[in-house]
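Practice record 12: protein with copper (II) ion.
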Amino acid sequence: MIQMTRRQMLTATAMGAALAPLAKFTPSALAQTAPLSLTIEKRTLEVKGRPANVFAIRQPDGTSGIRANAGDRLRLKLHNKAGESSLIHWHGQTPPVAQDGVPGIGQDPVPDGQSWDYDYLLRSGTHWMHSHHGLQEQLLMAAPLIVREDPKADVQEVVMLLHDFSFTPPEELLAALQGASGGGGHGGHQMPMTMQGQSMVDHAAHMRQMAETSKAGAGHGMPFGHANDIDYDAYLANDRTLGDPEIVQVEKGGRVRLRLINGATTTAFTLDTGILTASILTVDGNPVRPVTGRSFPLAMGQRIDLLLDIPKEGGAFPILALRETAIERTGIILATPGAKVSKLADTGKAASALIGLGLESRLIAAEPLVERKPDRKLAVELGQAMGQYIWTLNNQVHGMDTPLKVKLGERVEITFLNHSMMMHPMHLHGHHFQVVAIGQKRVQGAVRDTVIVPSGMGAVTVAFDAVNPGRWPLHCHNLFHMAAGMMTTVDYV
Ligand SMILES: [Cu+2]
């Protein structure tokens, strides 16, 4: 069974065999060898008092996503009951390409009513899963995929999956973005007219923000540009708003491992641990040398694990996620028994910061790549077609792109250079890379699978070993950017 370590599983199997005549004493042994069952289905979620039609990826007992232990294989039957074809990508995992879950690459979407089998060795750490098909991720087709590094650790595990949510269908949001930017012959700013009328693609606000942040950033080495393609109706932490948050009971004097996942479609957050000082354990599931703080940027697709000590006197401790350059916020509350939990507003007083590489430049991999000269250096320019909602890699959109080529066994370096005015979290499938340069400065940075490339000529170089043959997506994890062209592949030749 997936919740057991491999050693426990082997022991259980051996015991099951030895005790076969006494099967009644080991009823779970057989069950534990069955594959895990995960179903994609529709659900209704109440968001700010209104019903929202969204998706779920859950086990028969209702658990969202997967919890496993280091050394486990993922033996899984994925059932599609979504009412439409779908496919799930295991973000952060490094399976053979045929199991990576990207339509058109290795596997076709699974038709509604059908299932698909998976079997691969899991990579430990905080990861997640989401649809890589159409605009399904936008409707919460996303869930945690947690592979515990040390199942025996004396620490309480708390998962927080962030998302952004709009009552406006994602197709309308994308069409509005494309219309608002002057594409399609509409000219001017076309706002999505919806039944709800709440979600707005505020292009004018973007322009104002861009001007302001450019001014503030000029000459100070500060990141500049703009954020937030879409003003969402709600920002969710574990499916709930801050006005009605999840309250997680914790022990006085206890230790908590927070596993934070930014599953939002287009929203980056700054995490705020309030009065609690946190220590970073891992980023994207990979250990880093401890860095402490109370404020941590988290771009779309990224994860961060934080270790927190709950004070002996107890209390209530909000863990907030602040929407980039805005006042909206979401989060959960850690509370000891009997603690008074105050109600928190969905908005704060001051806008949070633009996300940059301040933290990234302080991270050092605890398990770096072996030192080696690169066999191949690749350059990827991130851009936007002038005045249009078209996002490019090396001036090309997906479908008309020139894949990057690598050979098995090579050490590959990719330098991302961002010519656009928005940050792009760049994600490579099937591999984890190490951040080896920020701008011109060489670093022994974190190993991760999604890296922030700041706007306004931000540059980041990553290195990886080409050890997983296939054709692997490389894309921006702002999923509307990806839908508007910002994807290519790394092809083994
Ligand atoms: Cu992007």
